[in-house]
Amino acid sequence: MSETAVLPHKIIGVAVIWNDLGEILIDRRRSEGLMGGLWEFPGGKVEAGESIEECIKREISEELAIEIEVGEHLITIDHTYTHLRVTLIVHHCRYVSGVPQPIECEEIRWVSLDELESYTFPEANSQIIAVLQSP
């Protein structure tokens, strides 16, 4: 039996949320728990019967209390950590309304594309940053 068969697998909808200034919203994971304290692009696990777009919209509303418009697909990443296999389905999103609240995270920040490199993200997120920064 292959090693990946025993790992739990989560399908995660991920939002790269842009504001009108060309900044991206990132959030810092709570310090307790897996990958605590690392920065990430917000999102969450797809529920049964839910499309990726619906998942992203719902998660962002629940976790950050803002309204977004889910746009085009950016990248899909399959990544295996020691404890978990994840499939990140990443979409460009546009910030629409509301004041972002750190409901499920430590803090949130709007950052420029160039500033992303100064934050520590989980390993799987490096591919998102690479594709965002590619010309």
Automatic annotation (TrEMBL):
Where, in this chain's numbering, is Mg(2+) bound?
A: 43, 63
Q: What is its EC number?
A: 3.6.1.55
List the PROSITE patterns.
NUDIX
Which prosthetic group or cofactor does it need?
Mg(2+)
Positions of the Nudix hydrolase domain = 7-135
A GO BP term here is:
DNA repair
Q: Is DNA damage among the key words of this record?
A: yes
Name of protein: 8-oxo-dGTP diphosphatase
User: Which source organism does the UniProt entry give?
Assistant: Brasilonema sennae CENA114
Taxonomically, what lineage is the organism?
Bacteria, Bacillati, Cyanobacteriota, Cyanophyceae, Nostocales
